[in-house]
Amino acid sequence: MGVFQKVVIYFYVIGxxxxxxxxxxxxxxxxxxxxxxxxxxxxxxxxxxxxxxxQFGLKGDAPVNPHxxxxxxxxxxxxxxRSIEGVEVEELECEVRxxxxxxxxxxxxxxxxxxxxxxYTCILRHRKDKFSVTAxxxxxxxxxxxxxxxYRSWPPIADREVLTTTVAMLLKTETPSVxxxxxxxxxxxxxxxxxxxxPNVTVEWHxxxxxxxxxxxxxxxxxxxxxxxxxxxxxxxxxDASYTLPFTKMSSEGSYICSLTVNPLFANMELNLHVEExxxxxxxxGPTLVLEEGKEQxxxxxxxxxxxxxxxxxxxxxxxxxxxxxxxxxxxQELKNILFSSHKHNQDQTYSxxxxxxxxxxxxxxxxxxxxxxxxxxxxxxxxxSFILQVEEPSSLMFNLAVGLVLISLSGVLIILLLYLNSGExxxxxxxxxxxxxxxxxxxxxxxxxxxxxxxxLRL
Length: 460
What we know:
This protein is α+β, with helices and mostly antiparallel strands and 460 residues long. It has helices at residues 3-20, 233-237, 320-323, 397-444, 446-459; strands at 25-37, 43-56, 69-73, 92-99, 116-126, 132-141, 162-173, 177-180, 187-188, 191-194, 202-209, 212-220, 226-228, 243-244, 254-262, 265-275, 280-283, 288-292, 296-306, 312-318, 333-334, 339-340, 344-345, 351-360, 369-375, 383-392. The chain folds into 2 domains: 18-275, Immunoglobulins (Immunoglobulin-like); 280-321 and 330-392, Immunoglobulin-like (Sandwich). The protein has 5 helices and 26 strands. A 7-stranded mixed beta barrel has the order 1-2-3-7-6-5-4. Strands 8-16-15-11-12-13 form a 6-stranded mixed beta sheet, with no helix packed on it. Helix 4 packs across helix 5.
């Protein structure tokens, strides 16, 4: 083996060791149960929180915290530790609970799983909803199965007891809480793993909201039957039970439950889907509003087609020069005289709302910037729409009258000139016609011709 190969193997081993030791243990809450019958004969369950540790290691390892209950998770085909890689301990919530098989006692078909097992669930949640994992911990017992429901005779666990377990089944989602827009096709992640081959697996998806529950999908590996759609059969063979929704509507909101049954275990994972549609924001004025001093204008900011109902619309006034300053700029002043329309419920179940005020123009407001800011849960930052007010001084009444009189006078003079020119043209045309008529008469009478010739001679 060459030096280069040894170096590669060394760094690979170091990386594996670091990833395995990334989270060697977790501080958890063990929710214990005390079951009893009350005076009326009904079963009552008292939940008792207890300090516990989930520790990854080998059988016989010493507990990290000897003063707490330790659930020692030993190596198996399923690696719970790997499913939480890439996060810090402080980002996780850990809870361990007892699990009842509801009186069903069957041999778990995994290597070393002989006799009766006691079961626990270890639930790991990311505090920012990046994922959620449920692991079933199998704790072999040398005691025979109880002759009644196991929860009626839970074996006591001492405060410093170490319970050696292995992971028998995992169910994980990376989308515990999903926010989607209308008419989208989100994929709800659900992955499962089982520590033995060929299990009889039943996968189901249900939707529920406001007391209503509906089955969306069902698959059984033994019969091969599929009811519903949204999950790929080939993907199921690899443990991928992710569900793809059809185009989302408002009625798509609710809880989606991915459940897995491998007798005697039943696990479910609740995924919450929220529909969020961002608002469209508009103003009824342009970027610049020009008003004459003393005039009044209704200014409307409208947020349309948003969901859910939670929306906030604010109006602010500011000097536009100050808005570009980073240091020492005065804060925008919120306007108080704002009126609101009622919420409009649109046909697609979205909402619309308007916020308006009456702006009276004054020279002191000229050059001011007015901004409408709309906040909504679907927005990372508010949407802002602005305009700048330009105020003009009103024109003088006497000046307007003088200009009007001049225009009227000029119009009158122009009309008289046109009439005069028209009448002179008609008179000239009459004289020309008369002269032409006399000339025609002279051609017919020689005396007239003689007279005209004499007249021409005298002119010469």
